[in-house]
Amino acid sequence: MLDNLYRQVIIDHYKSKRNFEELQGEDVVKVHYKNPTCGDIMNLYLKFDNGSIKKAAFLGEGCSISMASASMMTELLKNKTLTEAASYRKAMENLIRRGHIPESIDIGDSMALQGVHALRARHNCALMTWQALDRVLKDNQEYTNFL
């Protein structure tokens, strides 16, 4: 029953993508990312305000897991500090790669992706948008020090 609910959440995010748009402006950073294992592509947009992520959005094409994960991530990152973003990133890495369910942080709808842990070939699908985030913030110590 829980697997079915999680599947429904993934399908909902895939069919009705949240924040599926291009952001523009001087305070917006864009990164293009291609999944090296399957060819899914996306552009991640982050709008910053006083060192925090004011809004996150994306455009792209890919499988249901990568697009749903991107939709979920953009919802999680709204109005978050870079330290908070890094804690979400770490929680997602542990959930997908190790199967560890986060106890101290609420990752919202992203919990629906926990079954991806058993599908090793799909790990990069679920983490694609998070890897794009790493690219944007790779030189930011507030983010990288927490990882």
Automatic annotation (TrEMBL):
Gene Ontology BP annotations: iron-sulfur cluster assembly
Any Pfam family the entry gives: NifU_N
All residue ranges annotated as the NIF system FeS cluster assembly NifU N-terminal domain in the record: 6-125
Residue ranges crossing the lipid bilayer per the database entry: none
GO molecular function, one term: iron ion binding
InterPro entries: NIF_FeS_clus_asmbl_NifU_N
Source superkingdom: Bacteria
PANTHER family, sorted: IRON-SULFUR CLUSTER ASSEMBLY ENZYME NIFU HOMOLOG
Record-linked NCBIfam families: SUF_scaf_2
Family: Belongs to the NifU family.
Protein name: Nitrogen fixation NifU-like protein
Organism: Cytobacillus oceanisediminis
